[in-house]
Design goal:
This protein has 165 residues and is an alpha+beta fold. It is built from 5 helices and 5 strands; from the N terminus they run ββββαβαααα. Strands 1-5-2-3-4 form a 5-stranded mixed sheet.
Amino acid sequence: MASKKGGDKPTVIKKYANRRLYDTGRSSYVTLDDLCQMVKEGYDFVVYDAKSGDDLTRSVLTQIIVEQESKGGQNLLPTNFLRQLIGFYGNNMGKLVPNYLEQSINDFTQKQEQFREQLNKSFGGIFPMNSFEEMSKQNMALFEQTMKAFSNFSLPGQKTGSDDE
């Protein structure tokens, strides 16, 4: 299995001429979706061309981003941002962009973690703060339970499903 970020060595992925990706750690072929999941889970890997040995990691990570952006739903890279980013290529200021973007995303990630911790403290741990999706699911389940409870009541003169008349 791939090493977690900060672990020993990253897992080596080999990319073959037929564009297939081979995970040497698991001894199996993987897809871009598999690599995307590995990134989300914090696993570190490098991708090398199987024949030449060239490092293709940046190219493959970029492919993953393009694939994620094309799936629809959630687009993290606004069109104007992409245009501005392209404008920095070949520009003297372009040399500053990678460090700036890396620092900005690190700051954002740190603030996100602080926000989660603050919410967890505020609610005393009564909600799992792993994701807002979890909280939404819990809210919907609570709403459905409440609606079921109210469906047992009726207005005066109104029949309920349990009336035997």
